[in-house]
Q: What sequence folds into this?
């Protein structure tokens, strides 16, 4: 008698199986359609780089951030203490990634302006890239100012 009761509890209804199969088929069709049509995907097609510079950043005792030419070691400028919160946030994020990968502050970042008016800040040591235009014109201008500080085009 207990064997019959045990079999009864292991029974999965036909409707449940059909529902699960239908859900799996729907997911496969939806993913296939998205892959074929490109709907729901993010494209970051930058035409060509207009200008690209390498920069290092070092915290200063007064709370500022020194912008350094990695080739010469010369300080190109300083982000003053308490200013440019967006730059500070982006650099903290990249520094956190480097800390996770056990990479110090030595390797340079690459700031690039693209012909389609995008700008990116890349960390070649971790492979991380931040598309700066996604944060608005004011924040993009903060990094354009860094490029100008380094002797590049505004």
A:
């Amino acid at each position: 008698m207990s064997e019959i009761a045990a079999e009864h509890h292991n029974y999965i209804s036909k409707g449940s199986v059909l529902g699960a199969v239908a859900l799996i088929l729907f997911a496969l069709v939806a993913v296939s359609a998205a892959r074929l049509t490109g709907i729901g995907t993010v494209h970051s097609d930058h035409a060509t780089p207009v200008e690209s510079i390498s920069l290092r950043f070092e915290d200063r005792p007064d709370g500022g951030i020194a912008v350094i030419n990695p080739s010469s070691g010369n300080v190109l400028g300083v982000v003053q203490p308490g200013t440019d919160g967006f730059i500070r946030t982006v650099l903290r994020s990249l520094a956190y990634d480097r800390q996770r990968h056990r990479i110090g502050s030595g390797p340079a970042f690459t700031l690039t302006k693209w012909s389609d008016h995008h700008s990116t800040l890349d960390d070649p040591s971790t492979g991380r890239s931040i598309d700066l235009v996604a944060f608005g014109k004011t924040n993009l201008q903060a990094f354009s100012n860094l490029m100008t500080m380094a002797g590049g085009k505004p």
